[in-house]
Amino acid sequence: MPYFLSERCVLKWLETPSVYDIGADELYEVDEDAFDFLKYCALPEGCPSEAGIFIDYCMKEGILTTERVSLRRPAVLKSPVPSLRYLELQITDKCNLRCRHCYIGESGSDELSLNEIRAVLSEFEAMQGLRVLITGGEPLLHSGFMDLNEMLPEFSLRKILFTNGALLDKGKIAQLKVDEVQISIDGLEDAHDALRGQGSFSTAVDAIRTCRDEGLDVSVSTMVHAKDLCDFDAMQRLFDELGVKDWTVDVPCTTGRLELNKDFLVDPKTGGKYLAYGRGEGLHASTPGFACGLHLMSVNAAGAVSKCTFYSDRSVGTIRDGLGECWKRIPPVRLDALRCDCRYIEQCRGGCRYRAETLEGPFGRDLYRCALYSHPACDIIDT
Predict the structure, then answer these.
(1) What is the pLDDT of residue 1?
(2) Contact call for residues 122 and 154 (beta carbons, < 8 A)
């Protein structure tokens, strides 16, 4: 009986040979013998083999199937080291909201062309990328968004759409070709609307419900600010009820429009403990000894490339230089270079390096993450 690599799985040669389940967002490291076997299973004729422990495991995990799979498989090439796994792709800086904490600032007019997006995704896939984070501005305002949407299934990547949810009606949601939608919810109605505008909370919650009804994975991103501090337990209950897959909680950096709205800011001691909220796997396991952002790079709507969106004003090149060349220009940050002496350093990974720079300089501490890990509730990290 032949076995076939599942349609939702793809082989990726990162620091180690791996199998990436795009649908479940699971990354499996395998040895080279298993990897060579799975290469045969990825061929159209599949791989005949007697049942065994490894095959049984792959069948249980959904990595292998006995159903014939007809699918274009990308080339398996060794990735650079460190590997580029996550790409923030800001397709437009246009936005329909004026959120008071926005790090980008005022809505602009830049957007990547469809040809540029195709070229970037092709190179990212060839570099063995895992997730592309489709962001803005508001990405649904891109002039060719639906054409881009139709292009997405060509690439063996997990596609995640970051949106405020205001433009997501039932018809548009039904057409989406992404694997996940991430919607921003920054508190319950009063707190969220104070940050993002009247009526934006109910619209975002409706979008979450409709996405779930259409079978899409939904995650939520929440920013800790002065007006939502009493809302976190209620948000947790709400997101459980809505079937939210992952919940990311962070603190906004003082940049962009937040410079004019500092009354929304909270100090590290007050805000840090709220970072313990949220759930989900987040990023996959990283190489020990390196700080946050080891596997991440960002492309903005003008085509500039940087280590993450916060560093857009310090680009290392443009997409015309190629992702691979730009990736070489971003030196990894080692944890032993930081002014951190906390026992949680490997879990914290130095926190947000941009926020740390604004607080204490390039090798300083992210004081919000420090406040989180010094909080009694975080003793569970040792277990």
Answers:
(1) 82
(2) no
Average pLDDT over residues 304-319: 94
User: Whole-angstrom Cα distance, residue 298 to residue 292?
Assistant: 14
Torsion, Cα of 31, 37, 41, 47 (10° steps): -150
Alpha-carbon gap, residue 56 to 260, rounded angstroms: 58
Q: Per-residue DSSP letters for 237-285?
A: HHHHHHT-SEEEEE---S-GGGGG-GGG---HHHHGGGGG--BS--SPP
352-365 pLDDT per residue, tens: 999 999 889 989 99
The pLDDT mean for the chain works out to: 91
DSSP states along 36-66: HHHHHHTSTT-EE----HHHHHHHHHTSEES
Residues forming a β-bridge with 163: 183
**Coil, strand or helix at 326:** helix
Residue 289 has phi, psi (to 5 degrees) of 90, 0
Q: Which of 221, 239, 247, 245 is nearest to 162 (CA)?
A: 221
pLDDT of residue 109: 83
Reading the block at residue 319, the tokens are 């997409």
Report the distance separating Cα 152 and Cα 172, nearest Å. 15
- No. of H helices and E strands in the chain? 13, 15
Tell me the residue type at 275: L
pLDDT band at 107 (very low <50, low <70, confident <90, very high): low
On whether the CB atoms of residues 55 and 49 are closer than 8 A, the answer is yes
* DSSP labels, 287-311: -TTB-TTTTEEEE-TTSEEESSGGG
Q: Does the structure show a pLDDT above 70 at 103?
A: no
Q: Report whether 158 contacts 21 (CB < 8 A).
A: no
